[in-house]
């Protein structure tokens, strides 16, 4: 098998834009006072928003601190702490909060949702913003993949190289996506914050008696209702009957070209993109049709 089953070239510069991540249960973003943070909040769950250091003030419309004063959202904050919590008190409720931190105002758009965010972690990182404007070239993506593969050794002998890498070890209890005739197991996850890239080590098991053919570059990584496809894939495209394969996939940014801010603590599911023999045959037949005399 080739070292890379597929490699997509990322030509556009990554940039920090407007954040719309309503289906992510755990979110992690660099602070940007030009961004409106859209946060889904439930009446049955608590959403906690954390800053790097104590918050100076919170101003909001239609909010209540004790649940007794009229309001559509309950906001809990203890003076001197770096976080606050929110809970919806009415169906379909919406409001905005303005939070003062480090002499700047950060804006949050709260809306009641059945799919709430549980935790939103905001990190100071303006000094890294220039690094995020560097194009994420194929060589840089390959470098991230190599770091993930050698993470245990690097952590032991060169810890500074992986100091900023976030790691989740699922080997003892993998996250399993059961798709009937095959299953995908997540065994390790790595997040590279500066590059806004997650790398997953996956094991795919073919439970059927037929070869399993798929397109690794079109594998779907799902978080709630959001779907991501790989920026890089190192996974066999053919798995033998009752066989298995282990490999890596990476996702960078989101489908709109902005940062995804995904936390490795999310419950990810993985769905293969199966090869459709009938469709491929039809496509080949179409490509072989005579074109003589057709206008261009």
Any descriptors?
single chain, 296 residues, mainly beta, Immunoglobulin-like, 2 domains, seven-stranded antiparallel β-sheet, six-stranded mixed β-sheet, 11% helix, 38% strand, globular, disordered N terminus, disordered C terminus
Please give the count of helices. 4
What is the C-alpha radius of gyration, as a whole number of Å? 23 Å
Strand content: 35-45%
- Overall CATH architecture of the largest domain: Sandwich
Shape: globular
Distance, first to last CA:
40 Å
Order of helices and strands: EEEEEEEEEEEEHHHEEEEEEEEEEEH
Number of domains: 2
Helix coverage percent: 10-25%
Q: Can you tell me about this structure?
A:
With 296 residues, the chain is mainly β. It has two domains: 6-12 and 134-275, Immunoglobulin-like; 32-124, Immunoglobulin-like. The protein is 11% helix and 38% strand. The protein is built from four helices and 23 strands. It has helices at residues 129-132, 138-149, 151-157, 277-287, and strands spanning 6-7, 19-20, 26-30, 36-41, 47-50, 57-60, 63-64, 73-76, 83-88, 94-101, 104-112, 119-123, 166-169, 175-178, 182-192, 197-206, 212-213, 220-223, 226-228, 232-234, 238-239, 244-252, 269-271. The strands form five sheets. Strands 1, 13, 14, 15, 16, 20 and 22 form a seven-stranded antiparallel beta sheet that branches. Strand 14 and strand 15 (182-192) form a beta hairpin. The longest helix is centred in the middle third of the chain and has 12 residues, at 138-149.
How are the secondary structure elements laid out?
Layout: E1 6-7, E2 19-20, E3 26-30, E4 36-41, E5 47-50, E6 57-60, E7 63-64, E8 73-76, E9 83-88, E10 94-101, E11 104-112, E12 119-123, H1 129-132, H2 138-149, H3 151-157, E13 166-169, E14 175-178, E15 182-192, E16 197-206, E17 212-213, E18 220-223, E19 226-228, E20 232-234, E21 238-239, E22 244-252, E23 269-271, H4 277-287
Parallel strand pairs: 2-4, 3-12, 4-11, 5-12, 7-8
Antiparallel strand pairs: 1-20, 5-9, 6-10, 8-9, 10-11, 13-15, 14-15, 15-16, 16-22, 17-21, 18-19, 18-23, 20-22
């Amino acid at each position: 098998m080739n070292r890379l089953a597929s490699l997509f070239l990322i030509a556009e510069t990554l940039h920090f834009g407007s954040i719309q991540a309503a289906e992510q249960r755990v979110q992690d973003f660099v602070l940007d006072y030009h961004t409106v943070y859209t946060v889904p909040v439930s009446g049955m769950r608590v959403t906690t928003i954390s800053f790097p250091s104590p918050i100076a003030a919170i101003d909001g419309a239609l909010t209540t601190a004790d649940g007794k004063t009229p309001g559509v959202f309950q906001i809990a904050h203890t003076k001197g702490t770096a976080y606050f919590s929110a809970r919806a008190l009415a169906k379909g409720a919406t409001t905005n909060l303005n939070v003062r931190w480090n002499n700047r105002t950060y804006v949050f758009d709260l809306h009641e949702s059945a799919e709430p965010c549980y935790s939103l972690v905001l990190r100071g990182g303006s000094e890294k913003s220039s690094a995020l404007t560097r194009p994420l070239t194929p060589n840089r993506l390959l470098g991230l993949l190599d770091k993930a593969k050698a993470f245990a050794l690097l952590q032991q002998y060169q810890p500074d190289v992986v100091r900023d890498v976030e790691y989740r070890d699922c080997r003892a209890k993998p996250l399993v996506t059961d798709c009937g005739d095959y299953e995908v197991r997540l065994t390790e996850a790595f997040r590279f914050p500066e590059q806004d890239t997650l790398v997953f080590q996956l094991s795919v098991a073919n439970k059927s008696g037929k070869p399993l053919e798929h397109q690794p570059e079109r594998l779907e990584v799902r978080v709630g209702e959001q779907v991501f496809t790989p920026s890089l894939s190192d996974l066999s495209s053919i798995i033998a009957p009752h066989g298995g394969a282990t490999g890596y996939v990476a996702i960078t940014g989101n489908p709109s070209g902005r940062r995804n801010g995904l936390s490795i603590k999310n419950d990810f599911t993985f769905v293969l993109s199966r090869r459709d023999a009938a469709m491929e045959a039809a496509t080949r037949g179409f490509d072989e049709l005579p074109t003589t005399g057709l206008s261009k």
